[in-house]
Amino acid sequence: MDCKDARELLPVYLDGELDLIRSLEMERHLQDCVACFESGKAVRTLSDAIRSDSLYQSAPATLRDRVRVALRKETARRVRPSPVYRWLAYAAALAVVFFLGWNIGRLQIASNDVLLQEIVASHVRSLMPGHLTDVLSSDQHTVKPWFNGRLDFSPKVIDLRDQGFPLVGGRIDYLNHRSVAVLIYSRNKHIINLFTWPSSETADTPPRAEMIQGFHILRWVQEGAAYSAVSDLNEHELFEFATTFRTGH
What is the mean pLDDT of the chain? Predict the structure, then answer.
């Protein structure tokens, strides 16, 4: 590094904004060059003087009181809006509230549509070879403990073999920005994927039917958990499954 480069980089170096390699080069140059070293001292002295309190002038205490008085006088001179303007303001506020409520409703509907699409996509993906289960077992005492430590909740797992819906196994999936449990049941070679996760709703709700891309979906809330059952079973048999799972028999 020559003196020309050193003097151009000196202010940046003194502010600590040079990268490590250039800083080391600058330090070596300042050790060898007396002229640049003295220039650095002069710049640092000037910088310290600018930052010192001696150059700052505090405002008098009475200034704050004068500003407050002036503000009160200015506020007092303001003319109150006429009733017409007040009614226009109320109307505008109501319009904003209506607009926000309408759009929030649309967002909620759109969110539900996205969730249903994710559920169907996961169901279709699970039907591909090797994607159906993470734990393959018809024993509920094997499937339920498998979820321990893998989720932040403990899903309800029951075997419905005697009711015509044998348990196949379980897996973990990802829906609506969170990990969910999936219980897999079967019915006459038809697969039922039952998705479940903690619900923000406290009240139980009965199964509600949806249909997307030829798949039936039943959604309900029970004991603080949300459930979504999806299958290519007919709607009547899927309702039978939902009722059987909800009652446990």
Answer: 81
d(CA 48, CA 27): 20
Give the pLDDT score at 102.
Answer: 45
Residue matched to tokens 């077992």: 137
DSSP 203: S
pTM of the predicted model as reported, rounded to 2 decimal places: 0.56
Strand partners, 107: none
Residue 167 contacts residue 132 (beta carbons within 8 Å): no
Q: How far apart are CA 76 and CA 170, in angstroms?
A: 71
Q: Which residues contact 1 (CB under 8 A, 6 or more apart)?
A: 25, 26, 28, 29
Answer yes or no: is pLDDT of 226 > 70.
yes
Name residues whose C-beta falls within 8 Å of residue 114's C-beta, 6 or more positions apart in sequence.
Answer: 176
By C-alpha distance, which of 202, 192, 206, 149 is closest to 172?
A: 149
Asked which of 50-64, 137-151, 154-168 is least confident by mean pLDDT, the reply is 50-64
How many C-beta neighbours within 10 Å does residue 39 have? 16
Model pLDDT for residues 169-209, shown as the tens digit of each residue:
999 999 888 899 999 999 999 999 999 999 988 899 999 99
Q: How many residues does the chain have?
A: 249
Residues 229, 235, 239, CA angle at the centre, nearest 5°? 60
Contact of 241 with 165, CB cutoff 8 Å: yes
Which of 52-61, 99-108, 154-163, 236-245 bottoms out in mean pLDDT, i.e. has the lowest? 99-108
Strand 225-231 and strand 135-136: the pairing is unpaired
